[in-house]
Amino acid sequence: MHSTAIELGRQLGPLRRSLLRATREAAQLPDIPDSHIEVMRALVAEPYMSPGSLAAHLNLARSTVSNLIKAMVDAELVERSVSSDDLRGAALTASPKAVHLLAKYDAVSSQVLSDALDELTPDGRRALSAATSALADLTAILARRPS
User: Fold this and answer.
1) SS (H, E, C) the chain
2) Nearest CA to 43 among 59, 34, 51?
3) How far apart are CA 124 and CA 118, in angstroms?
4) pLDDT tens for residues 6-47?
């Protein structure tokens, strides 16, 4: 096993949680779980997804997505309507509240990261810049793997 794999696995979760916490604090954003942000991001990018399509897109079990959607409808972050293709199916969209929160989260998150990057050495910034495309490739490779 690569030592890079071990260290990357150890660092990604804390990095994501630290960024989420710092972003929430900087903008006084509500405590929205990371999973809800992923759902909002998917529904902003592709409105009117079915729950099954959303589950496939996020590589999550349908039951997990069902629970997320119920909580997010209750929190007024997702709107559920009847599918135009199938009257028995549902079409999910991000609510205006979710679109606003996501835009604010993305703007503040980018600023928080930019400020943190300014505290790194030039070599550290170059290393992270070079790693971004590799991380995108790694994400695509992992997404293709069967669940």
Assistant:
1) CCHHHHHHHHHHHHHHHHHHHHHHHHHCCCCCCHHHHHHHHHHHHCCCECHHHHHHHHCCCHHHHHHHHHHHHHCCCEEEEECCCCCCCEEEEECHHHHHHHHHHHHHHHHHHHHHHHCCCHHHHHHHHHHHHHHHHHHHHHHHCCC
2) 51
3) 10
4) 999 999 999 999 999 999 999 999 988 889 999 999 999 999
Residue 88's contacts (CB-CB under 8 Å, 6 or more residues apart) are none
Tokens 């991380």 found at = 135
Retrieve residue 34's tokens.
Answer: 């990371």
What is this structure's pTM?
0.80
